[in-house]
Amino acid sequence: MRAHISLLSLTSLASLAFAFAGIRPEAGSGTYDMKLTRTELFGLISNISLGTPARDVTVFVDWTWINLYVLDSVCKGVKNAIYDCFPQSQNFYNESESSSWQYVNELGQTTWNPNHFFFNAPATVNYAREAIKLGDTTIKAIVQASDFAFKNPFPFAFWGVFGLSPVFRGDSIQTSYSPFYQGWKQGVWKSPYIAYYWCYPESGKGTKLCKGSDAIQSLGYYNSSLARGPITWYDNIDPSTTEVNSVDFIYEPAVYNYWTLRLTQLKLGNEVQAINQTVVPGVVFDHATYGRGAALSNAAYANLVQKVNGTAVQLDQKPNNGNQTFYEFDCTLKNALPPITYTFAGSRREWSIIPNNYVVPHPTDNTSCILDIRVVGEGQAYEIGNFGETFAKDKYVIFDFNTLRVGLADLRW
């Protein structure tokens, strides 16, 4: 099991678990396009309907989370006490106003500390059943009900986290099932596929393809007409074989439900860069803020900086949230930069990020540019990286919950 959950009896598991991953249910007819809005601080948000009567809830859409996290009224174990933990401006889901909300006490409570939401502050959840409505599709799902344990100084722009992480064989506990996966097991979705593309401003394509939003997260299908050329499919590897919980997304208990591939080659132009072969070099898909910036190793980043004589710079407005140093360079040298090219296990096909997609303007100096590179870990050779917003430019990204595959294609604008 990739997400380790405590306080669960074998009796509870038998009565509450769906079928194992990889067993196809009867297909329904449901499909839905989530319209996504990009936020600078968090990533992509959207709206869903929750409860009875249905209430619109703004959610952070997250490929790396395992369920639907709902910010309810509970603070430090006390209901209707949310403002003891948040400013008065924080929106939340009032579970007492929904007739379909039902706590599932036999699933107990889970606390992650540390975690990747609040870092060294605990993230604690109870579990409940609730109705989730996405377009014409309704799912009765197990959700994570928040129990905040500390005072948060600022409000969030959302009051839920809509997880879309994969479910592995053996993850039979509903607490680690994404709401999409739960719906698929209930037979409400047309297929086990979800797909993503985004209309980034620099593309010059406008937002017509994205229906007026910044990006689209499709549920229950993918649109083959959006693929320019063939779709290349890759088998998802076991994320627990990578360094993800050591240097990337650190949880205790560990969470290992990620869409993950193995990197087999990294190049700057035609120059092959070193990959650490003593670990499994992981490619973790994340279209939130941790997926911003092109993924490189420390050594490859240094090689790239050298090509444009980059100099270290302190920025108030950083292009990504990595811990690496940022470098500025003369924008007239941008044409000297190579594409960054990746190859993943399962195909020889190469996937590139062109310089226009990993170079951003300096926030205050219009003659200087910044390399939008993100490095994870301390080693010189590549060990692990996050692939999201920057990598996904001009690409169509598909996830298959049934066979645990990742599909990639060039996006047809």
TrEMBL record:
PROSITE patterns noted in UniProt: PEPTIDASE_A1
Keywords annotated in UniProt: Signal
Signal peptide, first to last residue: 1-19
SUPFAM superfamilies: Acid proteases
GO BP terms: proteolysis
GO MF entry, a single one: aspartic-type endopeptidase activity
CDD domains reported in the protein's UniProt record: pepsin_like
Gene3D superfamilies: Acid Proteases (2.40.70.10)
Pfam families named in the record: Asp
Domain spans labelled Peptidase A1: 44-409
Family affiliation: Belongs to the peptidase A1 family.
Record protein name field: Peptidase A1 domain-containing protein
